Amino acid sequence: MYKNSKMPIIFFDSTKRHFPFTSEGLTYETAHWEALNNGSHTTIYLSDNDANREDAWYFYLKDEKEIDILYKEIFQKIETLKR
Predict the structure, then answer these.
(1) Which of 53, 55, 51 is nearest to 17 (CA)?
(2) What is the pTM of this model?
(3) Are strands 42-48 and 53-59 parallel, antiparallel or unpaired?
(4) Among 6, 27, 43, 45, whose Cα sits 20 to 30 Å from the Cα of 37?
């Protein structure tokens, strides 16, 4: 499902980012946490089957009080991804 989507998919507050959802045979429980944690809070994932590529953008939240800044950055990125 994720690799066939024409829309960007947002993984909000996922320490394991998009990998457990887009990697065949990997689940959230079996994904090795330490290797997948890059400190990001949110990931935008976009797959383009026609171009045979996957892209991911990572967003970081330094302070819970700055959640509005995080949302703004996410929405700005989504705006640039419109097809």
Answers:
(1) 55
(2) 0.77
(3) antiparallel
(4) 6
Q: Tell me if 31 sits within 8 A of 40, measured CB to CB.
A: no
SS (H, E, C) 41-66: CEEEEEEECCCCEEEEEEECCCCHHH
In the beta sheet, which residues pair with residue 56? 45
Reading the chain (83 residues) residue by residue, the pLDDT tens digits are 667 777 888 888 887 777 767 777 777 777 776 665 677 888 898 887 777 788 889 999 989 899 999 999 999 999 998 75
Residues sharing a CB contact under 8 Å with residue 7, sequence separation 6 or more, in sequence order:
46
